[in-house]
Write a structure and sequence with these properties.
There is one protein chain. This protein is an alpha/beta fold and 192 residues long. The protein is built from five helices and five strands. Helix 1 links the parallel strand 1 and strand 2. The longest helix is centred in the last third of the chain and has 15 residues.
Length: 192
């Protein structure tokens, strides 16, 4: 059996799994290799997936915001990773409802999202640092032009899930330190 937590954060072996926004398909291929009895599908709006894949793996081109072509109650595991910048704020309820539609009763969905801006424990970033100015410009453009709020998606997701009908919602939050400056012993372990 595969090492727990490598690709799926729960100790389950899905029968039918879907990765929404699969990009190059690396997660889909690795999960198909690790779980040869599972049927693993990836869907993305861009055709960048390889042609040579494991026999239990398929890729589809589709736009989740227009509804996917999979039948109701198809998947017992769905992953949505790093979709925060791709989905306008007003489309999140529709997006989560589409995942709910495709889920088998008792299935699991795994959302993995990031806060795309740096946070400093000691608040030492100079207010006019070039990177800080850049982040503010990106945030403003994404909000005003694309309708995407880049901050705080993790805290909004549980309500979207609950509204769609999901239960047993288990939010988890963690830090990914950058550089060698981090002061926490636990976080420093990443740099060893």
């Amino acid at each position: 059996m595969q090492e727990f937590g490598r690709h799926i954060l729960l100790d389950i072996q899905p029968e039918h799994a879907l990765d929404i926004g699969c990009g190059t398909g690396s997660w889909v291929i690795e999960v198909a290799d690790d779980y040869p009895k599972s049927l693993v599908k990836g869907v993305d709006i861009s055709p960048v997936q390889p042609e040579s894949v494991p026999p239990n793996c398929d890729f589809y081109l589709d736009n989740v915001l227009q509804g996917l072509t999979f039948p109701d109650k198809t998947f017992d595991f769905v992953q949505s990773r790093a979709m925060g910048a791709s989905i306008p704020d007003n489309c999140w309820p529709q997006y989560v409802a589409e995942i709910w539609r495709m889920m088998k009763p008792g299935g699991w969905v795994q959302f993995i999202e990031i806060e795309p801006f740096r946070h400093f424990d000691d608040q030492i970033m100079p207010p006019r640092s070039p990177l800080g100015v850049y982040e503010k410009i990106v945030e403003k453009v994404m909000t005003k032009v694309c309708g995407v709020t880049l901050r705080g998606l993790g805290s909004r997701l549980p309500q979207f899930l609950e509204d769609a009908g999901f239960v047993n919602i288990l939010p988890r939050c963690g830090a990914t330190p950058l550089g060698t400056w981090t002061s926490g012993k636990c976080l420093r372990l990443f740099h060893s």
